[in-house]
Design brief:
Keywords: Repeat, WD repeat. InterPro entries: NACHT-WD_repeat, NPHP3-like_N, NWD1/2-like_WH, WD40_rpt. This is NACHT domain-containing protein. It comes from Allacma fusca. The chain is α+β, with helices and mostly antiparallel strands. The protein contains 38 helices and 56 strands. A five-stranded parallel sheet has the order 6-5-7-14-15. A hairpin with an 8-residue loop joins strand 50 (about 1290-1295) and strand 51. Helix 7 crosses helix 28 (about 775-785). The longest helix has about 30 residues, at about 415-445. The protein is globular and about 125 Å long.
């Protein structure tokens, strides 16, 4: 198919524009092959863009070069330029930074000898190579992977007026419901339709197709595009080729046959000898028809008609003189190019494309003699295109609908036409929703950044954005040897104890240069851990607090393999960062690079005082900032050594001119000598790369010389000249309105949001188009085209937003368009709150209700407080002291956003407001838990505030700086937390770190998570809910706890080496003491008896048969003993045969069925005994498989046993089998695809529960064999599953501490009832019999912790008081060693 200008003869290597093909490319000798002209300016906040918004020239014609050409020319370019730096603050990336297409992760994080650079923790070794490279900072080895949650409907139409009714109904009837469908699932659905009745379309030149293809290319880069094609019996106007190769043109003209046709061709085409090979270019229409640019409607209309007639004459000549092969090469229409560039270029896009194929009936074909040669050619191409579409598209996506022809065309006054439109709406809705469901399912299934073995997926996503920017900007930083050597010596110097500060003016190349340093550091120091952040690149890097949080988290994972609780404040993060490295005996070299500190907020400067502290051994810290900034002065105050500062030098005149040439080629693919001479003269005033970028872009877009280059003397005048040009070409009022909205928003606006806002503005309304707001869609595409390298895509939460790329451009734009923006703020506020006056059909705002879990609600939660604060001066009472708002924001946005809102309200000073200070302190203590899942909001608030508002009388407790009188809101929040509005776990008594306890000196938070173990096992009673029994091996204690008071009811001390415990009845228990089984009476604390014999040392398995007997694996593991609990004697033994070694033992709760594993036989069988009849029932085997008997479970009544199994010679994941023990047959077999880590079975619930290595917990139906529920919340594999007495609720947790959260699930409907994340890891846990409570034993804490499941009922209500044993023994302590 064709491209914008002409078609290449080799149709397999087509570009968007023939100018971009090697055959028509301008001759240049330097900088021409700079693959990614990524001298990229960073967005406001000194951050780099995550993706470009699409550059007009690139969209119109990207330069297609071979890899060899690029590499050779790039090498030559670097050799020819003298050493300098090219700033990431200056030039745009040519490809999207954070939204690059995914690749398979196969790179290695290892050194050249194939070994890991140092002893990585197990959790890191379990990660994929790509994740390891991200964490280790191996930029060059990381494969770019990033997807965004955006879907675009791209409308292709042969001619706007032909399908105005169909397209109008798509916008107004189909799109709104589909948009809501996507929003509920967290996705943005945008619709792009440029085919409206406009002057741009009617001109029939190459401006319109270039705009269409540029916009299409922009969306293909960053979103899932669904082309919706409206094509019937016409291709629309055929465009004249923009370029024709010299040989083809001259050969054709020689054969034209008449002088008039020859003169016509030569009049409109001129030879361009600068191209290689040379070509003939179509002259601008205004060359011979100047009124085409007239502002007078009448003159312009006549000029357009004249051009149409001229174009038809030229086309007629071309059809005569060009052979069929060249006609296919050079002649095309807009819709052909759109179809080719999206549907025919990608099978994936073709698979989700829809073709609305309208077929008119009762229409008479014109006589063959009356059909012109142009129409015949169009019909030929139309038939070929439709045949190809039928081959490429899915059959059900071709909506072929018949409709009766009427003389007045398609009109809603005809009943048949209304019926046709209704059927089209129905089919479009159905097919599009099906496609959307497939895209969302595929995207979520293949989500790249899932937490794995505790390593946070959101951290990996952040690191990928940072890495992608680093990869791009490092490509365009020429080597500055002296500065590189200075930095290399700094990193390698073991005596260094201070940071290195790289400084220079904005745009001098700090970002690109540091990107190069980061990349080269991996080869300089292969064992080094490299952690880097570009400030402002993402929300997680836009504040010092967020920077230190992610940096500390990354280092924690690398050094310890897990993340642990740290209060969310600068002091604790910095202290823990240094403490981590200081605590290691032989730490690896750690390099931390933070670029762009000058973009921090002013109130954060005072938090930089830690820079004056001496760095830990082997830590190197490099920071950069602008030398004229306030933060630079603050850094100089904290670091008084001049040797710690390194300056960046400006570009030389020669390098600046070379860079200018490269920039022009990047944007326009050609250099007019006169224009370049004028631009080069401007370099005498300024050589900043950003200045050069602006000049080059102006030269590429301002083809008519509307910008006076001679008047540009500095960066500000260059940028303002660009804005002046925009206002002249795109109408001043429209430009002002749009840029004011972008500048006023908190972080930028999504495409769909911006289109909503423009559609509701009278500025963009017209009566010419079918939908009056249609010009807004066209204008948005034009703005992106004109501001290509200065706008970017950025990811904020789940939203993909448009924002400024360059901080300097952003500042000037805000000063010019948003200095007095009260009206714009009110407009944005009304939009996000859903209170806009009037509605535009098709652009209705997404429905958003309180607590709605959709993407628009999240955007509302992010934007509304920001605008209200700037309008009213405060959001404290309306939002921060509004429990409903707080809960909604932490649940649907982020706890970190709430903390940022508090910083916005107080500008960092909380000393004057105790109530707000307490809220801030409580949130920073709960931040890690609430970021895990904010549904524990009330539990966290209650657990931390109880020490403030219900303090204990213990004298060692420090006095509280907060009182109920000073903190009325927090007192109210504490009271509401006791009756939570959402299901929650509430701790009965304080055990979390509260605001009072956390004030003062910094703690060693890593050691808190390694506290002493007081609980090795917690076991519930057979019936009672109020009491549990704990066992502590090291302390030789067994304690009966009252779970409500969390106090011991009985204490048995001096129990010899207790390892395991089973409850016999209300008072008795059997305890494995060393290798012996002892019976104790828990009520009176007495030792009852010792069972005869000694247990196997490694496999001391035992279980209860009834209240008088126990079964235990013998010492030699060759048989099972049935022991009498009264006498301690062995009653009988169970034995299968000689030399059969058993390796497991489980007994059904009713004591009737015993199941053992046999490791002697190959493959391992399962042996099933009937304990009542005392005989072997089954010897269960699967050929070539063996049972992993440590992962097995049996139902209470002994009807079913489930066990994990694996194929002997297959290294793949294990799977699950279920046996019916009533018949001895294999009942079910499930292969979930990942290995099982824990398993449980419930006959009452009719299900099997298994925890997988990929963090999921699956619930399988015992009857149907289907997977009922996939329970997803944990960030590490679960290895503990506990069922309540009824088997309808399940407690899941990770005993290794990689994931500290305990979750309680309802197995009947697959919902998460409640969850809780303590500050430290637990060593034991249990669920109560009724499933309403969870009892956990925390490391470093001597008392149990009880979490009660509550919704809006008081913690202290609905509690049935129970007793344990005799009242006289209450609180009794027995020391068995003395008794």
């Amino acid at each position: 198919m064709g491209n914008l200008c002409s078609k290449r003869k080799n149709s397999d290597s087509l570009s968007l524009k023939s100018d971009g093909s090697p055959s028509t490319r301008k001759r240049q000798d330097s900088f021409e092959a700079q693959e990614n002209h990524a001298l990229s300016s960073k967005r406001p906040g000194n951050g780099a863009g995550q993706a470009t918004t699409g550059q007009a020239s690139d969209a119109a014609g990207g330069i297609q070069e071979t890899t060899l050409q690029k590499d050779a020319l790039r090498s030559r370019m670097l050799k020819e330029t003298e050493p300098s730096s090219v700033s990431g603050d200056s030039m745009s990336l040519s490809s999207p930074t954070a939204l690059a297409p995914p690749y398979a992760s196969s790179s290695s994080a290892r050194t050249a000898d194939g070994k890991d650079p140092f002893a990585l923790p197990l959790e890191i070794r379990k990660q994929s190579d790509n994740v390891k490279n991200l964490l280790l900072g191996r930029v060059a080895k990381t494969k770019p992977i990033q997807k965004c949650r955006k879907i675009t409907l791209y409308i292709c139409a042969s001619y706007s007026q032909d399908f105005r009714l169909e397209k109008g109904n798509l916008h107004t009837e189909v799109y709104p419901s589909l948009r809501e469908y996507c929003s509920i699932r967290g996705y943005e659905l945008h619709i792009t339709d440029l085919h409206w009745k406009t002057d741009l379309e009617s001109k029939q030149d190459h401006d319109f197709p270039e705009l269409c293809l540029g916009e299409l290319k922009r969306h293909l880069e960053v979103s899932y595009v669904i082309p919706v094609l409206f094509l019937s019996n016409s291709l629309g106007p055929t465009l004249l080729p923009k370029t024709i190769e010299q040989q083809d043109f001259e050969t054709a003209v020689k054969n034209v046959g008449d002088s008039e046709s020859s003169k016509l061709m030569e009049k409109w085409y001129c030879l361009d000898t600068q191209s290689q090979p040379p070509c003939y270019r179509l002259k601008p229409i205004s060359t011979h028809i100047p009124n085409i640019e007239s502002e007078k409607e009448g003159e312009k209309s006549l000029a357009v008609n004249e051009w149409h007639q001229t174009a038809e004459q030229i086309l007629a000549v071309m059809l005569r003189i060009l052979p069929a092969e060249l006609r296919d090469t050079y002649l095309t229409s807009v819709i052909e190019q759109e179809i080719h560039n999206c549907i025919f270029m990608s099978r994936e896009v073709a698979r989700r494309s829809i073709w609305a194929h309208r077929v008119f009936t009762h229409i008479q074909a014109p006589p063959e003699s009356s059909v012109s040669s142009i129409d015949q050619e169009n019909n030929r191409r139309l038939e070929a295109l439709q045949n190809e579409l039928k081959n490429q598209l899915t059959a059900e996506h071709i909506l072929r609908l018949l409709v009766k022809w009427q003389d007045d065309g398609l009109a809603q006054k005809h009943p048949e036409h209304v019926q046709y439109l209704n059927e089209l709406i129905k089919q479009l809705t159905s097919q599009l929703q099906s496609i959307l469901a497939e895209i969302i399912e595929e995207d979520q299934t293949k989500a790249v950044w899932k937490s794995c073995y505790g390593v946070d997926g959101s951290l990996c996503s952040e690191l990928m954005v940072q890495t992608l920017f680093c990869q791009q900007s490092a490509k365009c930083s020429p080597s500055i040897e002296n500065v590189l050597n200075h930095i290399r010596n700094y990193i390698g110097n073991p005596e260094i104890k201070q940071p290195l500060v790289l400084y220079g003016p904005k745009g001098c190349g700090k970002s690109c240069f540091l990107s190069r340093v980061i990349q080269q550091c991996s080869s300089w120091f292969p064992d080094a851990l490299i952690i880097f952040r570009f400030v402002g690149l993402t929300p997680e890097s836009s504040s010092l607090l967020q920077l230190l949080r992610t940096i500390t988290s990354q280092l924690c994972f690398l050094l310890t393999g897990r993340n642990y609780w740290i209060p969310h404040n600068v002091q604790d993060y910095q202290h823990e960062l240094y403490q981590l490295l200081s605590s290691l005996t032989s730490p690896p070299l750690v390099l931390i690079v933070i670029d762009g500190l000058d973009e921090l907020k002013s109130h954060e400067y005072s938090s930089l005082n830690w820079l004056s502290e001496a760095l830990p051994l082997k830590l190197r810290l490099i920071i950069s900032c602008a030398d004229g900034s306030s933060v630079f002065q603050s850094i100089k105050v904290n670091i008084r050594n001049d040797d710690a500062f390194l300056s960046m030098s400006p570009l030389s005149q020669q390098v600046a001119e070379s860079l200018l040439t490269a920039s022009i080629l990047q944007y326009n693919h050609s250099v007019d000598p006169e224009v370049q001479k004028k631009l080069s003269a401007g370099l005498k005033h300024c050589t900043l790369p950003l200045y050069i970028k602006v000049l080059a872009w102006q030269a590429s877009v301002d083809t008519q010389g509307m910008i006076e280059v001679s008047g540009i003397k500095d960066l500000n005048s260059a940028i303002n000249g660009l804005f002046d040009y925009l206002e002249k070409t795109l109408e001043k009022e429209k430009v002002e309105k749009t840029l004011e909205l972008i500048c006023t928003s908190r972080s930028g606006l999504c495409d769909s949001e911006l289109l909503d806002l423009l559609a509701h503005s009278p500025t963009f309304s017209t009566k010419v188009t079918f939908l009056d707001w249609a010009p807004a869609s066209l204008f948005l595409a034009q703005l992106n085209q004109k501001l290509g390298p200065f706008l970017e895509w950025g990811i904020v939460g789940d939203a993909v937003i448009i924002r400024w790329r360059d901080s300097v451009v952003s500042e000037l734009a805000k000063a010019r368009y948003a200095s007095n923006n009260k009206q714009a703020r009110e407009f944005l506020l009304d939009y996000f709150q859903g209170t806009l006056n009037g509605t535009k059909k098709g652009r209705q705002r997404e429905n958003t209700t309180a607590n709605a879990n959709n993407r628009h609600n999240r955007r509302r939660l992010e934007e509304v407080p920001y605008h209200l604060y700037h309008l009213n001066g405060s959001i404290k009472n309306s939002h921060l002291f509004n429990v409903k708002w707080l809960l909604e924001k932490v649940c649907h946005s982020s706890v970190y956003d709430v903390i940022e809102d508090i910083a916005l309200e107080t500008t960092g000073d909380l000393s004057q407001d105790p109530d707000l200070s307490l809220l801030h302190k409580t949130l920073e203590l709960s931040a890690s838990a609430l970021s895990y899942d904010a549904r524990q909001f009330f539990g966290q608030m209650f657990g931390r505030l109880v020490s403030v508002f219900e303090p204990s009388d213990e004298p060692e407790n420090p006095p509280s700086p907060w009182t109920p009188e000073q903190c009325p809101f927090m007192k109210s929040l504490f009271e509401q937390s006791q009756k939570p509005s959402i299901p929650s776990f509430l701790p009965i008594s304080p055990f979390l770190n509260g605001p009072i306890e956390s004030s003062g000196a910094n703690k060693d938070y890593a050691q808190l998570d390694k506290g002493e173990v007081y609980f090795n096992e917690i076991t519930r009673m057979k019936v009672a809910n109020q009491f549990v029994v704990s066992l502590a091996t090291a302390k030789q204690e067994v304690i009966v706890w009252n779970v409500y008071s969390q106090k011991p009811s009985r204490i048995l001390k001096g129990v010899t080496n207790p390892n395991s415990l089973k409850i016999i009845d209300e008072h008795r228990c059997v305890i494995l003491c060393g290798r012996e089984l002892h019976i104790f009476n828990l009520d009176d604390g007495t030792f009852v008896t010792k069972l005869k014999g000694v247990m196997n040392q490694k496999m001391p398995y035992f279980g209860l048969h009834d209240s008088n007997h126990i079964v235990a694996l013998s010492r030699n593991r060759m048989y099972v003993n049935l022991m009498n609990l009264e006498s301690g004697d062995c009653v009988t033994t169970f034995k299968v045969g000689e030399d059969r070694f058993l390796n497991s033992l489980i007994v059904s709760e009713n004591g009737k069925i015993l199941v053992c594993g046999d490791e002697t036989q190959k493959p391992f069988p399962l042996l099933v005994w009937d304990l009542t009849s005392r005989k072997l029932l089954y010897d269960l085997r699967i050929p070539h498989h063996e049972f992993i008997t440590s992962l097995s479970a049996i139902t209470k009544e002994g009807h079913f046993v489930c066990c994990v199994c694996r194929e002997v010679d297959d290294p793949g994941p294990n799977f699950i089998v279920v046996y019916d023990l009533q018949s001895g047959t294999l009942f079910k077999k499930w292969k979930p695809g990942y290995s099982t880590q824990a398993i449980a079975i419930s006959a009452q619930g009719g299900c099997v529960i298994n925890a997988l290595e990929d963090n999921r917990v699956l619930v399988w139906d015992l009857v149907t064999g289907t997977c009922q529920w996939s329970l997803q919340k944990h960030t590490a594999p679960v290895d503990v599953l506990r069922l309540d007495q009824k088997g309808s609720r399940c407690l899941s947790c990770d005993s290794s501490g990689r994931d500290r959260t305990v979750c309680l699930w309802d197995l009947t409907n697959g919902t998460l009832l409640a969850l809780f994340t303590p500050d430290v890891s637990f060593s034991a846990c249990e669920v109560s019999n009724d499933g309403d409570g969870v009892i956990i034993g925390l490391k470093g804490r001597a008392e149990i912790v009880t979490l009660l499941y509550r919704d809006n009922v008081s913690v202290y209500s609905n509690r049935v008081q129970e007793t344990f044993g005799a009242d006289a023994n209450q609180g009794k302590v027995t020391d068995l060693k003395t008794t």
